[in-house]
Design brief:
single chain, alpha/beta, Nucleotidyltransferase, domain 5, 3 domains, four-stranded mixed beta sheet, 46% helix, DDE_SF_endonuclease_dom, endonuclease
């Protein structure tokens, strides 16, 4: 028989079946093994290892745990901390345990982040701690959205294929799937929705911190030639309050991005005009006469108001709204920018956490100045190739 790696879960299933068939039907071990595609000697060996198998991860394919961990001395403290946090419902990730290990050991702290991450990951795997994520339920069949997208594209493609259409004036502004939000939401704590949990657990509960709903909103804008326009950050606060008029007005990053406040940190009909004045208009000032401008947005309510449409008409911008529930296939930022951008900001946050985290259950929150630094740095560092590829990955790729 061909060699095959068999999971612990299947080995135990075969053992239970063999016990039952030998007891009730008096079948030979050889015929039972043949029916499962294994050798009789394998079943005999598994019976000797039954106790060890029952304590091993169900998806494991070998009882050999590999080389011993080089941070075995941290196992009790780090893994113990993970179990303590899970018992009180706090979500834990590999990066949180990296921070914990850095607090415990200077030698570990001196290693590169990549080495730290791999050491913690191996330590967790050897203790049956795996990443768990909540499931997402689609409200419609994906093919329905694809059909709507194709119908919309059949109208858009001839327009953008015209010879006088320039790529730098084909513009997309990011919109998240969250209702009434038009950008990328960044919780100040950046705590993950995933957590490490024992494999096989049926219920995975994650407790939120008191500040978990403190958010800012980041609006990202790109052009089809790979250009990145100024990002916009909307913090929670009053539009004419102290944060907006004093703190943000004096920010060292105000020349690199548009900064605004809103009571819920959302984009609304007021601050979308801040985006127009601070991001779109400066880009259009370079507009070549006779070249049309196309702006692609989702169907967020503030994008479809009479005042916003009038403003776009006055600027000579043709507004194209992407069909509902189709941004995951049509909108370049959703397709190719959102994840790499968020991942890079999250990495900056983790490095900040390693240097500033206190030995406490609650995660410290970054200041607005830190958020601005991370967003500005990430947006400047993001390669233009990623921007261009985001258009290629979307169905707006025929003209790139």
């Amino acid at each position: 028989m061909p060699r095959a790696a068999i999971t612990v879960q299947r080995k135990l299933t075969i053992l239970r079946d063999a016990d039952e068939r030998q007891l009730n039907n008096k079948e030979s071990l050889k015929s039972i093994a043949r029916s499962h595609g294994v050798q009789a000697v394998q079943i005999r060996n598994w019976r000797k290892q039954r106790d060890v198998l029952s304590l091993t991860r169900p998806r494991a394919r070998s009882l050999h745990k590999g080389k011993p961990s080089t941070i075995k001395y941290l196992e009790d403290a780090v893994i113990g901390h993970a179990f303590e946090m899970r018992q009180i419902g706090v979500g834990i990730t590999y990066n949180h345990l990296v921070i914990k290990a850095c607090q415990l050991d200077e030698g570990f702290r001196a290693k590169t982040y990549e080495v730290q991450y791999q050491l913690i990951r191996r330590l967790c795997n050897s203790n049956c701690l795996v990443n768990r994520r909540r499931t997402h339920v689609s409200q419609e069949h994906p093919q329905e959205a694809i059909d709507r997208a194709e119908e919309w594209l059949s109208e858009i493609r001839p327009i953008l294929s015209a010879p006088n259409v320039l790529k730098e004036y084909i513009i997309n502004m990011d919109q998240t799937p969250l209702p009434f939000m038009d950008q990328t939401p960044l919780p100040f704590s950046l705590a993950s929705s995933t957590t490490l949990e024992l494999e096989g657990e049926k219920t995975v509960t994650v407790r939120q911190t008191g500040n978990s709903k403190t958010r800012c909103t980041v609006s990202l804008t790109i052009t089809a030639d790979g250009g990145k326009l100024k990002p916009m950050i909307i913090f929670k606060g009053q539009r004419g309050g102290t944060i907006a008029t004093r703190e943000l007005a004096a920010s060292q990053y105000r020349d690199n991005m548009v900064l605004s406040c809103q009571s819920n940190a959302w984009q609304d009909e007021e601050n979308i005009n801040d985006w127009v004045d601070g991001v779109l208009v400066p880009h259009l000032q370079q507009h070549a006469a006779g070249s049309p401008v196309y702006l692609f947005l989702d169907q967020f309510a503030a994008h479809d108001t009479a005042s916003f449409r009038t403003r776009m008409d006055s600027l000579g911008v043709t507004l194209k709204l992407i069909p509902g529930k189709c941004t995951w296939v049509l909108q370049p930022i959703d397709v190719g920018i959102g994840k790499p951008f968020k991942d890079r900001v999250r990495q900056k946050w983790f490095r900040w956490m390693i240097n500033h985290a206190e030995a406490d259950v609650d995660l410290p929150n970054a200041s607005r100045d830190e958020i601005q630094k991370w967003v500005n740095g990430t947006w400047q560092e993001l390669p233009e190739d990623i921007v261009r590829n985001s258009w290629k990955k979307s169905n707006l790729s025929w003209f790139v």
